[in-house]
Amino acid sequence: MCCIRIYLYAFVSYYIGFNMIGIRTLLRFKTTDCKTDLGTVFKKMNKDTKQLFGDLLETNKTRKHRLKLAYKMVGDEKEKEYNFLNRLKSQIKPTMKDDISSMVNDSKQNLNHEYYRKLIAERPSEMIIHETLKRGDIPSVTNILNTTMSEKSKAALENWKKSMIEKLGEEGFNKYSRELMAMGSAMHSKIQSHLNGCQPDVSHFEEVENCWKSLDAVLKNVSKPILVEKMVVHDGLSYRGIVDCVAFYKDIPVVIEWKKSSRDKLSLQATYDAPIQLAAYMGAVNNDISYDFKVEEGLVVVAYSDGHPANVFKLTKQACLDYWKIWVGRLNKYKRIQSSFK
Question: pTM for the full model?
């Protein structure tokens, strides 16, 4: 009996943190040999605990039910995400290999002198056929090319920006960037006025006037402008852009891309994305329902800000098709990038 008491005192000391009601219950349990009291003891313990601390926040049954619902919700969300991504992927057209149907719409007639005479006869006061501006969420050619720029090009652009900021300061660089954009717009505006039969205004930018001088020999060979700074949309591939010019160059119908540079561009490759941009506009012109003609050759013209003669890079039909394939690859890359953000 003495041993039993020692054991009980040791046990009670070990559980000193228990409340007095729990201790009395344990003492009753240890002083009886009746097995039927075991369930009664634990029920009493649970009752005492409940009186002190209240009901359980979550029973085993409710926990299982909660986890089951949570797993179901996660599964439903994953299924929704999977279905959404599949819908996006189905909207991305595959990169084309030999199929050029998305660039040249054969249902349209070739732009030629006969078509031009017909156009003038039908609309003597204007040289532009009916155009429906299409806007909305369709991405632009410029945005697509900027987004899909190679890592090497991005790094070069970033290094140039840093060096210019070090040289001019943050505010000076921002002013310089705005001036570059303003000069580009002024040059295009000057060309547009000339092609539309108006006398171009003299620009207050010296570089623009020098570029105008640089283009003198080229513009003498440009005639019969059909589109000048006009919106074009490729409905099939869902992109849009402002084409610089569709006209005749030395009696050949072409899409023209005007570029300004302070450095010599001795090859077409040195113009970076310009031929890809031209191919994109050509594909849009050839598929836009606003225009019932197609053009299959192009021209990248680089005017120089110091006034020396511009470089003219002629793109044959095959060259345009080659750059078109590159453009479609960039367009698909853009769509993949956009889908990854959704």
Answer: 0.68
| Rounded Cα gap, residues 212 and 303, in angstroms | 8
Distance CA 306, CA 309 (A): 9
Phi and psi, residue 46, nearest 5°: -65, -40
What CA–CA distance (Å, rounded) separates 254 from 316?
10
Is it the case that residue 36 has pLDDT exceeding 80? no
User: What does residue 315 show for φ and ψ, rounded to 5 degrees?
Assistant: -110, 120
Whether 138 has a pLDDT exceeding 60, the answer reads: yes
Is residue 139 within 8 Å of residue 333, measured between CB atoms? Answer: no
According to DSSP, the residues that pair with 228 across neighbouring strands are: 245
For 265, residues 6+ apart whose C-beta sits below 8 A from its C-beta are 259, 271, 302, 311
Q: Which of 13, 223, 235, 198 is nearest to 116 (CA)?
A: 223
Q: What is the 3-state secondary structure (H, E, C) of the chain?
A: CHHHHHHHHHHHHHCCCCCHHHHHHHHHHHCCCCCCHHHHHHHHHHHHHHHHHCCCCCCHHHHHHHHHHHHHHHHHHHHHHHHHHHHHHHHCCCCCCCCCCCCCCCCCEECCHHHHHHHHHHCCCCCCCCCCCCCCCCCEHHHHHHHCCCHHHHHHHHHHHHHHHHHHHHHHHHHHHHHHHHHHHHHHHHHHHHHCCCCCCCCCCHHHHHHHHHCHHHHCCEEEEEEEEEEEEECCCCEEEEEEEEEEECCEEEEEEEEEECCCCCCHHHHCCHHHHHHHHHHHHHHCCCCCEECCCEEEEEEECCCCCCEEEEECHHHHHHHHHHHHHHHHHHHHHHHHCC
The answer to whether 173 and 161 have CB atoms below 8 angstroms apart is: yes
**How do residues 140-164 score in pLDDT, each as one tens digit?**
999 999 999 888 888 888 888 898 8
Of the candidates 221, 228, 320, 306, the one whose C-alpha atom is nearest the C-alpha of residue 274 is: 320
- Average pLDDT value for the chain: 79
In this predicted model, what pLDDT tens digit does every residue of 245-258 receive, in sequence order? 999 999 999 999 99
